[in-house]
Amino acid sequence: MSDRPHSPIQDPRVNAVIARLQGARSRPSGGGPRSAFNSRDPHAYAEQGFSIHPEQGEMIYLLCRGLRATRVAEFATSVGMSTLYFAAAVRDNGGGTVIGSEIVPAKVEAARRNLAEAGLADYAEIREGDARKTLRDLGGPVDFVLIDGWPGKGGPSLAREVIEIVAPQLLVGGYAMNDNAEPDYLAFIRDPNNGFVSMTLPLKGGTELSLKVR
User: For the chain, which terminal residue's Cβ has fewer other Cβ atoms within 10 angstroms, N or C?
Assistant: First the structure.
């Protein structure tokens, strides 16, 4: 059982890995890549697991269970915190695949180790590389996509670029969740012409949850 009250995940192996990752969570000095003074090269943070928080993961798990989701995608996997929630949900739905993308090789390996420790390795496919390439073809429609992007150096955010790639591959009735509230991502997902209805949830300072309606 998790030490979080009323956790929807009942598998002690999964909860143990989540608790370990949460306990090891740390941020680089100076604010990390979102600071104007620090590097924005993701390879400079190979030891840092930038991940969603457990309350976001628990919502992902519940929504995926309710959707009976079997195929989901995420950007970026990091050390696999979000992947654990997705993989637990598709397994508990009877089987499926999480397609993740992570550009830092050390984090790809960490995510795979964490999934194996949780007994979920068979439910995840972590693609190493730039998500604008690795998620361009998901091999079929998906039920849910998490966009947890990396801050860029100007121009469109990675979150905006990736949602434009994966939105056509998301089923009507499926969900998109965004962790960092990039303004151009929000402009896209809140534009009714793009087929979504959306709301901001009071999780981790603001989490955008969007439903594809057409």
Answer: C
Q: How far apart (Å, rounded) are the C-alpha atoms in residues 148 and 101?
A: 11
Tell me: the pLDDT tens digits for 142-176? 999 999 977 667 789 999 999 999 999 999 999 99
Strand partners, 75: 101, 147
pLDDT digit string, tens, across residues 120-135: 999 999 999 999 999 9
Burial degree of 128 (CB within 10 A; 0-12, 13-18, 19+): middle
According to DSSP, the β-strands at 207-212 and 170-178 are antiparallel
Whole-model pTM over 0.85: yes
Q: Measuring CA to CA, how many Å separate 67 from each of 4, 77, 134, 139, 194?
A: 24, 21, 25, 19, 21
